[in-house]
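Q: What structure does this chain adopt?
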Amino acid sequence: MPTSWSVTPGAALAIATAATAVAIASSLVPSSSVQDKLRRAEERCKHLEGQVAKLQRQLKESGTTQIADPNSDIEKDETHTATTISQSKKKKKKKQQPPTIEDETQADGGIFLKRVGTIRSIYRLCVGTPRQGLLCPNARGCIELEKIGDASSSSSVIGLEQYSHIWIIFVFHLNTKSSNPKRIKSKISPPALGGKKVGIYATRSPHRYNPIGITLCKIDRIETIPKTKHTEERVVIHISGLDLVDGTPVIDIKPFVPTYDSVPMDVKLPSWVQGGLATQRNVVIGHDALDDLMAILDKDKNALQFYGHRYGEASVQETVDYAVECIRQVLAIDVRSNFQTKKAREGKFQAERAKRLQGAAADEALDAVVTDVCTQQLDNLLIQYVVDETSNTKRSTSVGSGAEDTVTVVSIKLLEEE
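A:
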């Protein structure tokens, strides 16, 4: 058997290198004592060279292609150590915390929010939409949920049906932007103040630094539409008591919990807010208007998008009653700015002229309508009404806002896509 250790070609090279170094050193150092040491080193090198030659012969005679190298254990230890360090680094990388929203904000200079749903409602225009949805409990709409990544839309609403109300966080997507990007208003003139101004954070104005709003709605039902061959699964949350325009992007939905979201009754409010909430316009629904709505639904009981037997009304009369009450609720709190109030009193506000209603027309010619009649869109209806300014206001601010005017609905037409 050959010896248990050998000198690898690398070791032989090291021996030769050492011998060369000895030879060079001997030529540079003249001292006799040093020369004796060098001579002994040369002898050891020659001895090692002989050992190398002997081992090589043993390899050749035994036919072995490799003899254990004492240095291999060191190499293995070094390899193992390097592997351990590499694995340790990988483990450390896995334990690194993901970036926070704050990190992304600092990197990008903003926060990116995804739309989780879209509002479909009876309101297509900003003007005339109630300032708070719960003031119009008969107003209906729905949230069409978006599919986010590979998440299941139906799974995201499991348990939501156990709540009665939800908070909807949304974007005021129809806000107009100033031509001067640096022009940012810090004060607002709420209609209930009759022209006076307060700070933007003291109001619910939609025109804010960040156009984000929050509203509370009632859950009527949650509908899951199964996946088909040509369509993905869809989830629709049907809601009522809303104040959001059709097409509003929803960025979050949270359940309403009274313990968290309500406060004791000793709440402090400005007098102009308290007075505004307590003041509503008188709304009269004319007989001709009632007949118009009845005729529309007799002709087509599915003429309305959010009212009828699909939403629980058992008869045409019940649908008429529910829709008429919604019209009354919306017009009663339709408080506007001084400029818009003046236009309404003069009969110069026509909803059908709005860009968002282009392509829709009433089922009868609008040219026949008296020019001093205002119009308001609700669901698929065009409400025609007149505004009479009151001469005996209880609140001074009502003079400019029209909060105590009388509204008379004279006709109701069906809006149809052309």
